[in-house]
Amino acid sequence: MQIIKSYAQGRWGQVHYAQCGTGLPLILVHQSPTDIVQFARVMAPLARRGLRPIAIDLPGFGGSDVPPGPPAIADYAHIVPAVLDDLGLNTASVLGHHTGAVVVTEAALQFPARIDKVILNGPLPMSDEERGQWRALLAREKEWNLRWDGSHIQELWNFRFNAQPQWTDLEAFHSNFVHGLLAGRTVWYAHDAVMTYRHEEAIDRLTQPCLMLANTGDAIYYLSQRARERWPRFAYAELQGGTIDIIDEQPEAWSEKVAAFLLA
């Protein structure tokens, strides 16, 4: 199954994306800090199930150009119509994981006529106190700095490693870690935007059919449970185990949940 890589013209330069298959178009937006490598293992499984996955690098990550300053989530959302226009598509469904879930929610609100269905893989309905705690924890991304002895790499590895009580796939961990490093000194832009965005208020305003997708081993699984209770009108599905790398860890099972909702 051939993966085709391309560039669309975005607000701050080029937006890199990759696509596969010829079925129902599905925009995929990754978590931070990584890039579309997060979806490498599900491109073919999604395509085999009748979808056309289109994975986008957030500006400043992967092959997409870096914004001139810290964007808001409302700014990041422009990547969706930019890629749709480049492909000549009027509409598509969208799926985002963690940071990506916030971005696609805003895209669905800004461009409702262009979004068919929404999948939030790890939604973020936080309290103000939780948002403050996460902002403090993630502030260390702003301290990103190079050192000749390479100790900065070990520190960042440890930071990611300690984000979960257990990990299940070393290759996936390493791949996402390395791709996250490529964001460099502006790596904090995306998380900072997320922590100034009220995802719960945005989800309240969604009008498209929506699936809350979770896995029990996710570090923020408790937020998915909260979302399930707060929005019973939306569909809900979950996978057992896994981590924040669930897409890499259970690609077939994850793709089946996604396709079942979109093709229903």
Number of strands: 8
Do you know the CATH topology?
Rossmann fold
**Percent of residues in beta strands:** 15-25%
| CATH-derived architecture | 3-Layer(aba) Sandwich
- Shape category: globular
Biggest beta sheet summary: 8 strands, mixed
Q: What is the helix tally?
A: 12
**Terminal Cα span:** 24 Å
CATH class term: Alpha Beta
Strand order of the largest sheet: 1-2-4-3-5-6-7-8
| SS content category | alpha/beta
Fold and architecture overview:
About 40% of the residues lie in helices and about 20% in strands. It has a single domain, classed as Rossmann fold. Strand 1 and strand 2 form a beta hairpin. The chain is globular, with a radius of gyration of 17 Å. The chain has about 260 residues and is α/β, with parallel strands linked by helices. Strands 1-2-4-3-5-6-7-8 form an 8-stranded mixed beta sheet, sandwiched between helices. It is built from 12 helices and 8 strands. The mean pLDDT is about 95.
Tag the structure with descriptive keywords.
alpha/beta, 39% helix, Rossmann fold, 264 residues
Topology diagram in text:
Elements lengths: L3 E7 L2 E7 L4 E6 L13 H6 L2 E6 L16 H4 L2 H9 L4 E6 L1 H12 L4 E7 L6 H11 L12 H11 L8 H12 L6 H7 L4 H6 L5 E6 L5 H10 L4 E5 L6 H4 L1 H12 L2
Parallel strand pairs: 3-4, 3-5, 5-6, 6-7, 7-8
Antiparallel strand pairs: 1-2, 2-4
